[in-house]
Amino acid sequence: MKYYIKLLRPKDWAKNVFLFIPSFFAKHIFTSSKIELLLAGFAAFCCIASSIYIINDYRDIEDDRKHPVKCKRPLASGKVKPSHAIIICGFLIIAGCAFAYVANPGLQLLLVLGVYFFMNLAYSFGLKNIAILDMLILAAGFVFRVKGGAIITHTDSSDWLIIMTFLLALFMAIGKRRDDILLRESSGTEMRKSVSGYNLEFLNTMLGLFSAIIIVAYISYAVSPKTITRLGTYRLYYSSIFVIAGIMRYMQVVFVKQKSGSPTDILYKDRFIQITIFLWIVSVYILLYLPNSPIFNAVLK
């Protein structure tokens, strides 16, 4: 059973928390009806994402068997039969559509989910082999998650929110490709065709560039008059300290500690990053939901 669960890649479901971001910033995420709908939407994206992972693993069985890490995946290792994987994939697609309809009756969310699915399908069947485009597609997937969350709760997703999501996701995609380059250099084997379009110097430069862009963009978003009017507070910039700390820690893990740049690995394994994300959430919650708290106002005076 554990191999069938592993086939779904539940660790990667953490990416779908981006679905909750529009509602969180709109200050109504804790409304019971909103939470129920968002959880249904979260389940929908998890099902569709897992179906895509299965399709990708099925298509890449032979390549994965040559990979020092991916060879342990259920299909590549032979722990799960391909025929079983196809059946599970079909069930997940149906379940994902059902959850999407529960979250947002009608076609709007189903359309977003459909575009997300076929975009990733195109990625699996060839676009992942095109350097730069492969990273842009990965980043676009996070934007679709945010748009999905906005549709479910009938919330406007601001331009800044979309831009920030895309930049952060692209930053993480660059870190992931950097891992592929390091693996190629250490093993002498090219596991992904798009890797030939990158080198370590280029990706290191891109990481540095996008880390700076993300920090500047977040602070610009926090102090923008439109954001202040929309959120009802001018103090959001206080939370930027945790954004800066998170970016700095990521760069430290990658360049100083020479560890994997995989966002999922870092999220689950790095305590500093976990605490930083938690403190960012708490700070934004206080700034948006408790702006008139006497203790809070006394501290910031």
What's the pLDDT, averaged over the residues?
89
Structural class comes to mainly alpha
- Beta-strand residue percentage: under 5%
Number of helices: 14
Q: End-to-end distance, in Å?
A: 56 Å
Q: How many separate domains?
A: 2
Largest sheet composition? none
N-to-C SSE string, H for helix and E for strand? HHHHHHHHHHHHHH
Radius of gyration: 20 Å
Q: Helicity level, as a percent range? A: over 70%
Q: Report the uncertain regions.
A: none
Tell me the total number of β-strands: 0
Task: Based on Cα principal axes, name the global outline.
Answer: globular
Task: Give a verbal description of the structure.
The chain folds into two domains: 1-129, Tetracycline Repressor, domain 2, CATH 1.10.357; 158-301. Helices cover 71% and strands 0% of the residues. It is built from 14 helices and no strands.
SSE diagram, text form:
Blueprint lengths: L1 H6 L13 H5 L6 H28 L1 H6 L15 H22 L4 H17 L8 H20 L6 H29 L12 H24 L1 H7 L8 H17 L6 H7 L1 H19 L4 H7 L1
Helix pairs in contact: 3-5, 3-6, 3-7, 6-7, 7-8, 8-9, 9-11, 11-13
List descriptors.
mainly alpha; 301 residues; Tetracycline Repressor, domain 2; 14 helices
In short:
This protein is mainly alpha-helical.
